[in-house]
Amino acid sequence: MAFEGLSEKLNATFKRLRGKGRLSEADVREGMREVRLALLEADVSYKVVKDFVARVTERCVGSDVLDSLTPAQQVVKIVNEELTALMGGANARLTMASKGPTIVMMVGLQGAGKTTNGAKLAGLMRRQFGKRPLLVACDVYRPAAITQLQVVGEQLDIPVFEMGQENPVTIAQEALKYAKDHGHDMVFLDTAGRLHIDEALMNELKAIKSTVHPTEILLVVDAMTGQDAVNAAGAFDEALGIDGVMLTKLDGDARGGAALSIRASTGKPIKFVGTGEKLDQIELFHPERMASRILGMGDMLSFIEKAEQQYDEKQAKKLEEKLRKNKLTLSDYLEQLEQLQNMGDLSQIAGMLPGGMGKQLEGADLDGKQMAHTKAIIQSMTPLERENPQILNASRKRRIAAGCGLEVVDVNRLLKSFEMLQQITKSMSKGKFRGFPGMGGMPAMGGKMHGFGRKKRFK
C-alpha cells in the first residue's frame, strides 16, 4: 500500500504525543525529529524534509491550541495541512483547449508506463467527463509500441491513429487533422522515451511541441524510482516545459517519497496517479485526500466516488431499507462482496478507510478463488436458508458443504463473517453507529451517498 511505512511511523509518533497529555516545546521538537526521520526513510528529498519540518515546528511551537482539540490533535492538524500544501494544496486538472481538440502530449522515460497510462487517462476522460479521445502512436522506435497502444485502445474501445514508422512530427500533425475531421475533442500523443534523458529525445519532443502546440504536456514518472522520478521531472521541465505529472505504480511504492517531493522540487503539480495494473485504476490526484490517507484519517470522498461507479441509486435505496430494518440476507451479503470486489484491490480500499476500519481490511484479499467459494456456498443453500441462516444446523451444513465441494469449516467461516456483519448492522439500526470521526455521522447523510456510507462501513 502506498505510504504504508510512512503512515505507520507518523501514527506511532502521534500516539506517543497523545499519551503525554499536555505538550511542552521539547515534546514537539522531539516529535518533529521522528517525523523528519520518517520522511527521510520514505525517500523524500532532504531539502523538502528540512523545509517541511521547519514550517511544522514553527507552527506547532507558536500555535494556540484550539479549545475543541487536545494539543496532540492540534499537531496532527498542522501536519495534515502542511502535507496537503507540500503536495500542491488542491487538485490540479488538465487544461482544456478553448477551440479545437485538447492535445495532451505524454512524455517520460522508457519504462515509466506512458503508453498504458496515456490510454488509462483517455479512458478516464471518456468515462467521467464524456470526452471523445483519440490515441496517437508517436513512438516509432520501441519494438511493439504501436501494437501495445492498439491493444489497450481496443480494450478501452478508444480509436488509435498510427502511420507506422513515419516521422513522429508528421504523425502528430496528421493525427490532429484526423481528430478535427472525425469529432475527437481530445488527442493523446504517445511519444517515444529513452532509458535516459538525451539530446536526441528532447529535440524530437521539442519539434512535436513546436509543431502541434499541445494544450498540456504531461510527464509520466514511475513512483517506485523515488528520487530518480523527481530528478526526471526537473530535467524534463527544464528542457521541455511540462504542465503536470502523472505518477504511476503508486500502489507498489510503500514509501511515497516521489509524491511528496515532486511539487516542492519542481513546482509542477501531480495531476493523476496510477493505482494498479487494470485499465480503470487511475485517479485524479487530490493532495488533501492523500494527506488524510497518510495520517490514517482515511479518504471517504474517494471511497464514495469508487462506490458510486459500481452502485446505482435503486440498489442503494434497497440496501438502505434493509439496513434500517436489520434484514440483511446472505444473498445481500454476496451481492455486497461482489460490489466491493468490483471496486478494486482491497489494500487500496483499506487506505481510504479511517483508523481501525482500514486496519481490518489490511492483508485481506477478495481474489477470484475466495469469491468463487463464497458464491458456491451461498448458492448451495435453499432460498429459505439464505433468508434465515439461523436454521443451518449440522446436517444442513454438511449438505451445503457437499453440494459445493468444500468443507463444513468453510461454511462455518462464512456464517461467522455474516454474523459479525449482522451485529454491526443491528447497532446501526439502533442508532449506535455514528459514522466515522470527522464525517459528521455518516447515517445523517441522505440519498445515494447515505446508502454508500452504510454499505461500505461494515465491510
**Number of DSSP E strands:** 8
Integer-rounded radius of gyration: 25 Å
- Oligomeric state: single chain
Question: Total number of helical segments?
Answer: 21
Structural class: alpha/beta
Largest sheet data:
8 strands, mixed
Task: Give the overall shape, derived from the CA principal axes.
Answer: flat
> What order do the SSEs take from the amino end to the carboxyl end, as H and E?
HHHHEHEHEHEHEHEHEEHHHHHHHHHHH
- Taking strands numbered 1, 2, ... along the chain, how are they ordered across the largest sheet? 3-2-4-1-5-6-7-8
Explain this structure.
It is a single chain. By secondary structure, this protein is of the alpha/beta class. It contains 21 helices and 8 strands. An 8-stranded mixed beta sheet has the order 3-2-4-1-5-6-7-8, sandwiched between helices. Helix 6 links the parallel strand 2 and strand 3. The longest helix is centred in the last third of the chain and has 22 residues. The protein is flat. The C terminus is likely disordered.
